[in-house]
């Protein structure tokens, strides 16, 4: 039976079919890293990439792929990234790697979000994986109190984001209405972004299973 890493590699390879040229938006994490390694094999087909984190930019450059500043790019056809959880409606919970804000920004500039996951990430309801919330440091305790009022148990991650902020991982949520919760958390003063990608879900989910890569739209 394939290991989780082998499944991640298979789905990363499958995503290359969506790479037609131009500039590609690239996510962050172990699945995105496998995608970057596959992208390197077809790098002559593209002009370059926009990275969703410093780590991704470094890996892209290591493969000789040109990294563009998002402000110098007039949109992208696709953004390719993993997720910590995803539903059949293609609502995602992301940010396990702490790159949620830049991921959401780069994804917003792309026509299609191609989500690449192994089968363990498909869930009926989001929230078993703690929901990351990026917060301006001085607002940390205020935001934590507001998140408790929403029924969560926030825990400070020992991590600083690429934007110089902190992350509260919110445990204990059962997210039955991800669109509403995404917008409710964003209303809390001091929140930069939360890891729900629901108001703009993925357009395509490539899901690596024991029976091969399945496509959900
Ligand atoms: C990083 C993310 C990642 O997409 C998410 O954590 C999945 O990571 P992996 O592919 O390593 O399982 O949102 O901020």
UniProtKB/TrEMBL annotation:
Gene Ontology terms for molecular function: ribose-5-phosphate isomerase activity
Ligand binding (substrate): 28-31, 81-84, 94-97, 121
Enzyme class: isomerase
Record EC number: 5.3.1.6
Key words of the record: Isomerase
Pathway where it operates: Carbohydrate degradation; pentose phosphate pathway; D-ribose 5-phosphate from D-ribulose 5-phosphate (non-oxidative stage): step 1/1
Xref: Pfam families: Rib_5-P_isom_A (PF06026)
Active site: 103 (proton acceptor)
Catalytic activity: aldehydo-D-ribose 5-phosphate = D-ribulose 5-phosphate
GO CC terms, sorted: cytosol
CDD domains for the chain: RPI_A
GO biological process terms on file: D-ribose metabolic process; pentose-phosphate shunt, non-oxidative branch
Family: Belongs to the ribose 5-phosphate isomerase family.
NCBIfam families: PRK00702.1, rpiA
Function comment: Catalyzes the reversible conversion of ribose-5-phosphate to ribulose 5-phosphate.
Quaternary assembly: Homodimer.
Protein name from the UniProt record: Ribose-5-phosphate isomerase A
Species of provenance: Methylobacillus flagellatus (strain ATCC 51484 / DSM 6875 / VKM B-1610 / KT)
């Amino acid at each position: 039976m394939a290991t989780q890493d082998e499944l991640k590699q298979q789905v990363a390879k499958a995503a290359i079919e969506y790479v037609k040229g131009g500039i590609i938006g690239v996510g962050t994490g172990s699945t995105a890293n496998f995608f970057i390694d596959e992208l390197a094999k077809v790098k002559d087909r593209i002009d370059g990439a926009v990275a969703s984190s410093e780590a991704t930019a470094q890996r892209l450059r290591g493969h000789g792929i040109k990294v563009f500043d998002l402000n110098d790019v007039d949109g992208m056809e696709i953004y390719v990234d993993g997720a910590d959880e995803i539903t059949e409606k293609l609502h995602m919970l992301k940010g396990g790697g702490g790159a949620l804000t830049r991921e959401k920004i780069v994804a917003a500039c792309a026509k299609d979000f191609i989500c690449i996951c192994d089968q363990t990430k498909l869930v009926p309801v989001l929230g078993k994986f703690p929901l990351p919330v990026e917060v301006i440091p001085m607002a940390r305790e205020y935001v934590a109190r507001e998140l408790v009022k929403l029924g969560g148990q926030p825990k400070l991650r020992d991590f600083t984001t690429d934007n110089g902020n902190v992350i509260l991982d919110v445990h204990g949520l059962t997210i039955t209405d991800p669109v509403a919760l995404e917008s409710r958390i964003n209303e809390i003063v001091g929140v930069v972004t939360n890891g729900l990608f629901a108001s703009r879900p993925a357009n395509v989910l490539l899901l690596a299973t024991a029976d091969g890569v399945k496509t959900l739209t």
